[in-house]
Design brief:
elongated; single chain; alpha+beta
Amino acid sequence: MFVYLSKKIAIPNNVKLNCIAWNKEEGYIAVAGSEGLLKVLKLDQGSNGQNKGGLAAVSNLSMNQTLDGHKESVRVVTWNDAQQKLTSSDTDGVIMVWMLYKGSWYEEMTNDRKKSTVASMSWTSDGAKICIVYEDGAIIVGSVDGNRIFGKELKGTHLTGVQWSPDNRLILFALANGECHLYDNQGNFAMKLNIQCVRLNGSNAARVQRIASICWFSGRSSSRRNRPVLAICYESGKVQIMRNENDDDPAIFDTKMRNVDAKWNHDGSVLAICGTTLETPVPPAQRDNNQVCFYSPLGRIYRTLKVPGSDITSLSWEGKSLRIAMAVDSFIYFANIRPDYIWCYFEKTVVFLNSNSSSGNGVRETPMSVITFWNTVSNQSFLKEVEPTLCLAASSEHCVLGVECVSSNIKEIALSTLENRSNTADDKVYQLLLCNSIGTTVDSKYTDIRPSFVGINSSYVAIASQEEILIWHYHTPKSASNLQSVKARKEKRFHIDDTPTGVEMAKDLMLGSSSTGTGEAHSHRRISDPICALALSEKLLLVARESGAINEYSIANVALRNRHMMSSKVYKMAINCNSTRAAIIDHMGVMTLLDLDDNRETQLNFSRVERKDVWAVSWAKDNPLLLALMEKTRMYIFRGNDPEEPISCSGYICTFEDLEITSVLLDDIISIGELQNSSHIIQLRVKSLRDTDDLLEHVGLEDAKQFIEDNPHPRLWRLLAESALKKLELDTAENAFVRCANYPGIKLIKRLRTINTQELQRAEVAAFYGEFEEAEKLYLDADRRDLAIELRMTLCDWFRVVQLYRMGGSGVSDQQMETAWREIGHHFANLRSWESAKEYYDKSHYIEGFMDALYHLEQFDELEQCVEKLPEKSPLLPKLAEMLASVGMCAEAVQAHLRFGDQKAAVNTCVNLRQWGEAVELAQKYQMPQVNTLIAKHAAQLLNEGRLTEAIEMQRNAGRHLDAARLLAQLAERELEKRAPMLRIKKIYILAALLAEQHLKAVATPEIDYASGRNTLLDSISLEDAACIERMWHCAEAYHFMLLAQRQLRFGIIHSALTTAIRLREYEDVLPLEDIYCLVALASCADRAFGTCSKAFLKLETLSHLPEKTLQEYEQLARSIFSKYEPEDADMDTVPCYSCGVPVPDSSPACVECGARFPACISSGKPILQPTNNIWICTTCHHCASPVEISRHRACPLCHSLIASMAV
C-alpha cells in the first residue's frame, strides 16, 4: 500500500483539536477540541465532467456545522454508525447525543454526572448499547434510547478506555496502570488479559505503562478467521495484537514512537497507529515529528506517513479505508490510501481478486478466492474460484496466478509431484496457474517457493520468495505445437546469494537435476537482506533486496549481468519495452530511473529525473522513452527526461500503448464494491496526441506534419495519413503511410491514383476507414451501384446486397439473386436459425443447404422427397442417404444409394441398420454373394461375445431360418443347464421348429409345394438339415407331453396321465430318464397298474448315474409298495390294431404284433388307434389330434397356431 497527504483543513481561531471520528456509513466527520469545539464536516467529491475517480475529484465541504452545547474542552467523540447518532463528552463529564434532522445535527439528549471526566465511550456493533467509562472507575451501560441498563463503580480504579467484543457479549476496560480487564455484558468480572508486550506491576518495572489505545475490530473479516483483531497500544511504543481474549501467543512489536491513537480499517487488514517519534528531542521550530504507521494484523509494517505539526491527537478511517483523517494541532489532515490490490490487465481484460471472495462465514473449512476476469470491451465477467491467491501478473496474452494450496486433497497431489519433498504437515505448497482472458487454465506448476513476488513475459514466469527465485518456462497451446527446444523447457531455481554465470551454471540451476543436498540447503538458508521487489521483461530479470541492491539477470541463460545499488529500499520496479531502462520506486515513494543499457553512447542522463509521492509507473509498450507515472492524484507522462502537463486521475494504470493510457478505477470496483462497467475504464491521451488532433482540426496539414516530424510516432503518422486522405492530399498521405509502415495504406494510395473521380476516391477512403455507410452513399451518388454492391459483398452484408439489387430494377440476373439468397441462408445457418435458413435456401434453389436445414428441423418427410428432386448420379445423393440412415430411414436411404448407383453402399446401409432381410434381397438382386459371408462373420462375432439372442434375430431377419433355428436349439440347451422352467424350454423349441418350417417353405418350388409335399421337401434337402428339423419337433414334443402328463396327473385324469407318461419313453434321448420313469411310476401306481409301476422301478434301480443313496431310496419305496400289491396291471381296455387286427391296450403307442405305430393325440396324449381316417392335422406343425379332443381348443396345443378350420 502507499499513503500520501492529500488535503488540509484549518480550524478557525487555532482551536486545538483533541479527537476526530469519521462516520463509516454516511461519511460525516466529527472533530472536537478545546473551548467546547464540536464540528461536523462532510466532504463531497465534485465532478468536472470527467470520471477521474473519487480520490482525484475535487473535494468540497458540503457540510460544515458547529454543534453548540459543550462549554469545556471536548475529549471524546464516537459515532453510532448503525443508528446515525453522534455522542460527545467534555472534561466536565457532560455527555451529549446528537441526531440528524432535515440535513442538520441537533441535540437529542444530555447526561451530566458532574463527578468525573469521561475517559472513553464505545457503542456495540449493532448500535443498540453504549458503554461509558469515567476516570474515577464508574461504568454506565445504556441503550440507544437513553435508558440505563446497568451501572457499576470500580473503587480505586482509574479507567482510560473501553471496547466491546465483536459479538457484544464482553466489555474490555483499559486501566491507568496498563492492565486490561474483561467483564461480561452484565457487569460481572470475567478475566484479566495476559499482557506480554510490557512488564506490569513487576519489581523491575521502572514506570507505569499507560495504555494509549485499545481497538477491537468488530466487523466481518474477509480473510482468515484466526487473524488477530484486538490491538492494545501502549504509550511507550509497545503493541500487542491478539486473536481473541484468550490468545497466549499474540503478535508483539514496537513502533519506536510515543503512541497516541490506533484504529483498524474497515476490514481489519490494516492497523493505523499515530504518535510522535521517540528519537532525540525535537526543537519547537521543527514540526515533522508526527507520524502514522500502518501495520498488518501480525505486526509487519506496511508504510510510515510523516505528518506536519507538533502534536497529533487522533486519527480515523473513511468507511472504505481509502482515506484517513488526522487531528494535528488546529488542523485536519487527510491522506489517501492506495491499496496494493491483487490485479492485472491483458487483452482488454481486467483480472482482480474480489475483496469479499474469501469465505469467512464459517461455511467452508478452508478459504477460497474468487478471481474476476472482466472483459472491458464486451463488459462480460468470468469468475474463477481458486485456492487463496497471493499474487497476479500479466503478459500480452496470459496471466499467472500464484495460489497457496490449503485444501488437503490438492496439497497431497502437489506434494506428490514435487521432488525432494517429504509429505509433512508443516510443508507449504504453492501453485502457479497460467490462464487466458476468460479464466481457463492453460498450464500450471506446483512449487514450494512462496510466490511473494511475480513477473511474467511471453515465455517465462519468474517468482521470488524472501530468499529464492524460480524461473518457469511455461507452455501454451501455441508453444506446445512447436516441439523444438522442449527439452530446454525446465525450471531454473537459485538462491539470491548465488551468482549464476549462464551456461556453466545451467545444470546446477535446473530444478529437475538439482541434488537433494542442494535443495535442502536452499530451503534452510536464511539471509539478513531479503528480496523486496521483482521485475521481468523479455530479456532481463531485476530482483531488489531490502538493502537497496538490485541484481540484474539475463533470462535466456540465467546469468547475473550486473549489480546496482540504490540508496533506499525498493517498493516497485518496471522495465521498459527494450530492456534498456527501469523505473524504481522506493518505500518513501521517490521514483528514479535506472539505466540498464551497456552501450554508454546511447545512454541519457537520468540522474536528475526524480519524483516524489509516486505509487505506480508504466512504460509504453511501443516506445522505450515514454513513461507514465501516478504521483498522488496526478498522472505524469515523461518523454525521456521531460514531463508533460499532469492529468488529474486516481485510476490504476492498465496499459500504455499507441500514445493512449488505459486506467481502471479499482477503488470503485474492489473497495467500494460497485458493479464494473465501462465508466470504470478511463482512456487518457498524451499531450502529443492531443496537440496533433488540434493541429489537424484547426491549423493544417503542413504544421501538423512538422510537429509530427519533431515528435515522431506511428500513431501520429496514422492520424496525419487519415486527415490527408480525407482531404485527398495523396502525396502527404503516402509519405505518412510510409513513415508508419502501413502497407495496406500504401496500396490504397496506388489504387486511388488510378481513379479519376473525386467522389469515388472519397468513397474508397471512407471504406478504408470503416465508414461503409458514407462510402455506399458516395458510390450511389456517383451512379456506381455496382461498386456499392461489391462493397457490401466484401462485407458479407447480403441483406443490403438484395436491397441494392432491387433498387436497380431490371438488369439483375436470377443467378445473382440466387447467390445473395444462398449467402443469407448461410448466415442464418451459422446462427442455427434453421427455419429462416430453409426459407432462403429454398429461394436460392440450393438443395444441399435445404437438406441441411430440413435435417436439423427434423422434417424428414420433406427430406425424403429430396431423393426424387435430385437427378440420378447427383453427388448429393450419398450425403442425403447418410442423413436418412442416421435417423433409421433404411428404405429411403437405400433408394438414395440406388439412385446414385452405389448398390454396395445400399447393402452396407441395410447391414448397419440390422435390416438383414433387405440386405440379402439386395445382394441376391445385384448378385453380391459376399453379403452371406458378411452375415456369417457378424453372427460368429456376436456368438463370441455371448450375444446369442442378437445373433438369432440377425439370422432370422436375414432369411437364414435354419441357422436361426439351430441357434435357438443352442439357447434351449443353455436354458436347460440353468434349470429353467420346462414351459420356457418348450416354447424355445417350438420357435426353433417353426423357423425350420419357414426354411422348408423357402426351399419349396412350384413343382414341390410345401402344403401338399412337405415330406417330399424333407427328402429333397440334405439329410443333416432334415434330421435337424425333425429333431427340433422331437424335442418340442418331449417337453409338450411331459407338461401334459403332469397337468393330467394334477387334475386327477389318472389313466390319461399314465398313457401320456408311457408315451414319454420314446423321448429318452431328450428328457432325463429319472424324470420319465418317476412320472411313469407315479401315474401307474395311481392308476393301479402295478405291473407297469414295477417295470418303472426296475428301470430306476438300474440307472447307474444316480447316487447310491437315491437308488436305495427307490428300492425301499418299491419294497414298501409291492409288499402290499402284486406287480400286475389291472384289466385294460383293448382295441384291434388297424394293421393286423390283434387287440392292443388302448395306452400302447405301438402294436406288439406287427410293430405298427399309433400317433399320439397332441391334445390328450392318447394313441390314435385309427390314424388312417377321422383325425385332425395342424397345418403349421403337421401334428395330429382326435377331433373330439381338438374341438375344445382354439389353437394348436403344440405350436399354438390358431385353428382356422376343423376340417379333418
